[in-house]
Amino acid sequence: MPVPLLDVNAQNLPLAGELTAAFERVLHDGRFIMGPDVAALEAEVAALLEVPYAIGVSSGTDALLLAFMALGLGPGDEVLCPAFTFFATAGTLARTGATPVFVDACPVCFNIDVEDARRKITPRTRAIVPVHLFGQMADLDAIEALAAEHGLRIVEDGAQSIGATYKDRFFGEQSDFGTYSFFPSKNLGGFGDGGMVVTRDEGLAERARILRVHGGKPKYYHHLVGGNFRLDALQAALLRVKLAHYADYTAGRRGNAAYYTEHLKNLPDVAVADPVHCRCAASQDAWLAETGTKLVLPAAYPHNGHIWNQYTLRVIGEGRRDQLRQHLTDRQIGCEIYYPLTMDQQPCFQHLPESSRQGCEIAHRLAGEVISIPIYPELRREQQDEVIAALTDFLSPS
Ligand SMILES: *Cc1c(COP(=O)(O)O)cnc(C)c1O
Question: Which member of 72, 261, 280, 307 has the greatest number of CB atoms within 10 A?
């Protein structure tokens, strides 16, 4: 039985009636740019994340770009950015003219290593962009402390983590912006591109709204240069249908993650990542060697409400990850490498100063060891059993 990495139809087709009704409503309304569905989705996302302002935008990438533009980041500014992330985080920073300074990753949760961020602060550092990778929040307390100490802006890239929590918070007390994506593979997956920017600051919200429409206010009078960063009315209407079911999607992902962990953790040479090794690769290495671990299962920190956008394994041993990828592919089991190349290793960033591309050794290792397996909410137990059987067979070939 093939097991896809993601099956959007399994989630969307049961809602076909509601989705079609939403489409027809917008069709008959005839207002395809902004309008009531965009405003309603913004209000619903603001309520979900317990923030006063949410601004619908054209993608998660544009959400980042808009946030950076609203903060006025540009040439001469340095911004602390995880080396281990999706390209958009770093790409949008570069597009503002700011210099991304790449920061190493935690070997347990894969998120930004705040101690390494601290080492990379200079008088030109203006902001930090924690990414809540794979559905788990970065260490907001430490990030806020660092930002307060050095007067840094905070933009949270929550593209993979809409609704995830850190100590019961959805969004940092001191963060300027949170950005989200509705790309179909994200936890709240839309029907094309879409995104959202949130903030607690009324002035920043206003600036972001103006920049979303080319920086014009009133229309055709431009004090700022913005872009077309609008969310389609149609996309908003369809997303509202799915948002009503969002709690079920999260519950499904959490159930699937628990099932994998339960059935994999007792296999020989398998261990769940231990949060005691947070940010300390050396102590984790000693533990891996001592226990002879060959496959590390992902851990959720007790203070985090993980929403499992990905269930990401680490395969220990030279070349073993790629062997596992082949092994799963041969069995028609979907898998993906998020991400095979870190930001400091990207060809387009080689012109950046050496100082912004150094000290990302853990991120480099992760890029060689990680592999994500199917975790989408509608995944059936028989399919998970198939994945578990394939992993069992990989670890101890029969
Ligand atoms: C998906 C993603 C983005 C970009 O979102 P799009 O909607 O695809 O533009 C940005 N950052 C991270 C971490 C992502 O996973």
Answer: 307
Measured CA distances, 61 to 9, 164, 243, 249, 299 (Å): 24, 19, 20, 23, 27
What pLDDT digit, counting tens, does each position of 74-115 carry? Answer: 999 999 999 999 999 999 999 999 999 999 999 999 999 999
Token code pair at residue 187: 């936890």
Q: Is the same domain home to 229 and 256?
A: no
Cα three-residue angle 322-326-327, rounded to 5 degrees: 115
Residue nearest to atom 14 of ligand 1 (CA): 159
Mean pLDDT computed over every residue of the chain: 97
Ligand 1 center from residue 129 Cα (angstroms)? 13
Give the global pTM. Answer: 0.97
**What mean pLDDT comes out for the span 304-329?**
98
Q: Look at residue 1 and tell me if it is in a domain.
A: no
- The alpha carbon of 232 is separated from its chain's Cα centroid by a whole number of angstroms, namely 22
Domain housing 361: 247-395
Report CA-CA distances (Å) from 185 to 8, 180, 181, 189: 8, 12, 9, 6
Output the residue whose Cα is nearest ligand 1's atom 5: 60
**Tokens 């593209």 -> residue:** 159
Q: How many domains does the chain have?
A: 2
Atom of ligand 1 nearest to the CA of 131: 13
Query: Relative to the CA of 61, which ligand 1 atom is closest?
Result: 9
Q: Is 309 touching ligand 1 by the criterion CB < 6 Å? A: no
Quick check: 398 pLDDT over 80? no
Q: Tell whether ligand 1 has an atom less than 6 A from the beta carbon of residue 372.
A: no
Tell me how far apart the alpha carbons of residues 195 and 130 are, in angstroms, rounded to a whole number. 17
Of 238, 216, 217, 213, nearest to 227 by C-alpha is 213
CATH number, domain of 276, equals 3.90.1150.10
